[in-house]
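Review box. Two proteins, two foldings.
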Amino acid sequence: MALLDSVTTCLSQPVHYVICKLGFEKKDTYDINNILSGNGEVCWQAVTEHVCYLESDQSVDYIKSIRSLGPVCESVNLYLKSLTKEQFVIQYASWFHWTNCTEVFLEVFDVLQSTQATEVALGLMKLTSCLERALGDVYLLKGNDCPFLLRDLLASEQLADVFGQAVMNVLRVFIGSPYGLNLRNVLWHGFASPQEIPAKYCAMLLFLTAGLGQLLQTYLLQTKYVLVHRPYVIFSSLEELDAFPDLNNEILSIAEELVKQSSFVLKTMLPFWIAALTAFKQSRYADSVILLLPQLEVGLRLLFTTTNKCPNRLLTAESSALYTTFDEMLAKHLDNEEVNQLPVVLEEPAMASDFLWDFLNHQEGPRIRDRLSHGEINLETFPREVANQIVGFAITILCRFSDEDMFSLKEHMVIKPLMSCASCYRSRFHPISRLKKQVLECMKSIHLWPELPTVPEEQVQMFKGLEGNAEANTLILKISEIISQLQHYMPQNCCSSDDPINSVLTERLLMELCDTRICTLYSPRPVLEVVLVLRKISTQCHQVSQQVIAGAGLRHARWVNKTLRSRQRHNYLRMLNSIKFLSPVLRLILLLIALELVSVHSVCKKNPFDYQQYLKFLKSVLQYTENLVTYTSPEKNKWDETMELTNKILIKIRKISDRKLMLMHLAT
């Protein structure tokens, strides 16, 4: 597909005017001493008097304010450039401590001394991210549940109480309001090219952040409050994010050539791409991802607006409309209910969308863009493993949208493995994918039961009044009968007539079923409702397994040491008897979940009554597992009751199977 080659800016005309011209209209030379005290502190009153207000409702007049603050910003920029690094550190470093990332702000000072527009834009993205996080920490001095959006945070009463409303209005001129410069959003969403961000605005925000530190210090001394910094998000289970092979310099060198030729890259944004690849080579992994994510967004936005024939959405939206962001581009339908055509032009639509949903949107995924842009991640320790995946994905997109004369590069032996990994990618953080993981982890736990210590049969015989063996065997027989019913929905040759439980309810079968490729993209609401209940059931089953393992080990140790009282000994033996049927019933439930996963999309397209009936049945299974958690807990130890509960649920499972309302039957 031919992409637009004539795009010279992604800023709409009004937004381009506000950012690139408005603050330069006043040619006055502003005396820096007007806003600096003798010891270098910010004179806030002299700054706030440049904020103008509408006569109608006394809200901020952003146009007049930007025009008025323009010369002030220029003066601050020249002032900071006149300082040496040592002078700046002595004068201002302590005023950045409240942000909990002083080094980032000192780096921004270094950037201002250079002439590289890309570095200034990167510095501004990092500054706004860290500033937002720090302001959120201050908000929590007086409030709960810090607002997620920067504009709501800056407009909060809590921050106005600490810093003053006039000070917050100054900040809103620069960031957080769609009516102002809105520097954070136009950069983080990929609308601004390096040359379109005046360095003086970065300098002004650096200066204002130090001024906020001065105000906060006074406030904390007066109120005796203690500022507490929220812990950073730490990426756990990095192996789950491993989608692409490790990127070496050879791959990155080819990527640099692809960037120059790919139609996915707007020419005005080329410096960002080169800087991102350079940062990765230099082990500056947070910088690499911060630079790259907005470029992926603007490249996909170009595809989105072209394929959906809405070229006006390529530009920044006005304050009265929404940006075209990842959320909309990854949706199934447009806001006019028409089908989104973006997946059609992607060579591997499910792969690209699944990857982006996994890494950016799914709640249980890393949500890299959100967490980076909101300052939730320690930039200094950002893991290479995460950056490797984002850069690897970007390279596959560059290949997909490269000209035919780049064939030799796309077919290069070091690029082919990347493309292969891309085509094989499956979602890891969609609720269905998480359910698969839960099921297999629960099965591994239950497989530990046969290794649990037990009591020799001759010792059991010494205790009178122990009953339940016959009932346990009856339950096991019912489970076997249900398994026989399910044979038609399982792979062939996995069931032995001699031992249906141990031949079917195996980890191998569950792995085979969970490995079945299921479309997770655009899962309808009924599917997600079913999956939610199934996940709750799986969680409860795992909890039961953990309680059984812990309880069996503890009680056996006390049995051997003869520290159990008579009633406790009887209860322990009842537990051992219950394990005989609890293991197969839990494995049966996991099998049902796995079978249902394979056909979950089909059931939701069937008769709504059948779907609602089945959902009701699933909730009864959930209630059973929740009761099991209670009865098998150390506090309750109601093992006889578990037998009665299990008998009732097995009857329900058998009954609904007979009525052909089970999910996998509905799918046939």
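Next protein.
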Amino acid sequence: GALLVSERIDREELCGALSPCSLSFEIVVENPLELYSGAVEIQDINDNDPVFPSSQARLEISESVAAGARFPLESAQDPDVGINSLQTYQLSTNPHFVLDVQTRVDGSKYAELVLEKELDREEQRELRLVLTALDGGSPPRSAHVQIHIDVVDANDNAPVFNQSTYKASVRENTPSGTLVAKISAYDLDDGPNGDIVYSFSSHTPAKVRELFALDSATGELRVKGQLDYEETKLYEIYLQAKDKGAVPGVAHCKVLVEVVDVNDNAPEVTVTSVYSPVPEDAAPGTVVALLSVTDLDSHDNGLILVQVSDVNDNAPKSSQDSYDVYVLENNMPGIPILNVSATDPDLGRNAHLSYTLLQGDPTVGHIFSINRENGTLYLLTSLDHEDQVEFSMMVQVQDGGSPPLATNVSVSVFVTDLNDNAPTVLYPHPNTTTTYTDVVAPGTPAGHMVTKVVAVDADGGYNAWISYTLLQATDPSLFSVGLHSGEIFTARQVQEDEPPQHTLVILLKDHGEPVLSTSATVSISVAEMVKEVFTDLTDVAPANDPRRHVTFYLILAVILVSAAFFITMLSVGIFKCYKWRQSKELFNSSRSTLYRTPGPFHHIDAVRGGFTPPNFYHQVYLTTDSRQSDLLCKKPFTSSPLGSRQSTMRNGEPGLYHQIVGTAGRLPTPAE
């Protein structure tokens, strides 16, 4: 179980600047099966010296630069990490400059020269300084660079950046040439002293210069190399703007570039097989293989996504079990009236829903249609409230699984009424040439009902309420009409000198919107006797009417037929009443006989002896609770008493058979 080093380990080669540096491994122990995960951390030793990009650096500083001005210096690089990495810088002793060591966000160090005492070109034209970089090893390792400073005449105005820090973010797979940020500076000087050139600061690492390019004229910072989030997540880039004066003025800014991770690393799966091959009698739960999955990406890009395949185990579910839809009659064909909504929590085809109308009523399929994909219900024809008020149907919602699951939703469509029917007059009938004349005698008092206008409206509810008004009359003061009943009354007493014939025009209106109306014409005669009415009718009939001679005979025939019908019905009623009373008396006598001690002449004996006539024979064999004369099944009457008795016992009702046993106390013998 010992873990050994098989070759020389170089931390910088394995992990570079990453810290801590670790190597992961897994150990499988069998019998019993156990899995152990481990990691070996490679610790750094101080085996690398700091290194400057060049052995010397040259600066030009104007003598007019005020104290406190800062000048970035090239940074040294140390591949070691932690305490063994670059820790500080030291500057040789001089009267004008001090060293300010700064720390970047990634922990690396860089140095800046700070002018502590103003320069004087006439006193000293150049300065030579030594910058030393030290790591934190024990003993520390170091590197040196010579700094040569030329003191030049003044350039009055230095460039100024519009902001000291810029921030940007780019995806790690961003192609070369993509714009990252654009820096901008201005210089108040004219001519070459005001022309600005952008460049990387001297202490910008070489790696950054390989990955990013800066346009010296526009200040555009673009991607140059291949960015890798797993290698570096944030770049801190130092840029400068310098004018073209004899003694150029310099301004500095910082650009922070955040690298955004993309899913550019496939998961790495390590499979360790335990049983190979797997025995056919292996018990459920036996470990077959061990899987180890890693992904170099971060956050969600580094998760392993396990897909769970869907099973069609959920039936479609509607938001409502039933729908009530109200549609105005006389609708436009083809309009949508309802959208049946349903959901299915399954995935893919198992969640694809289709809608169909179940053909319970064949007329529904001719009137309604449903969109199979979205469940929209359409009306194919125009509906009529007077034809049918309600339609009921069933919509089936089915998913696309195998086998499919379905849910039924009931839909009720109610046709609401419109006022599309005018009142229809039933009496007097408007479509006939026969004149309906009502008679009122002279002297009839006020308030007497003479006749009634009968009308109906095919609409329903409020639309079918009919009001009656007197529109026109021969004498408007003689008659009035009931507003809601249509009854025509005398408004005053009928006088002897009234005109013999009165014509009334009645206006019938419903209460719909809009109001529909019709009219009825009523003729009323003022006469003492029916003969006068007939005379008036003859007078008003056309002279050439061939039916004027048969009117009297038709009326007489109707009266005779009615009288004959009444007499016939009265006779039938009297006969039925007589028969009912006869059966009731028979029932009472038979019931009292069944529940008393048998005498010398029992009704069974009467049948046996042949004394009872056949019609009475059928009447007495009744159930004890019967209230009607229900007869037994008839068979041809036989003169033999034994044949009659046997037929009676076989076809008699069970209730009677039990009564015989109870009365006689024994079963009848075959002879009986």
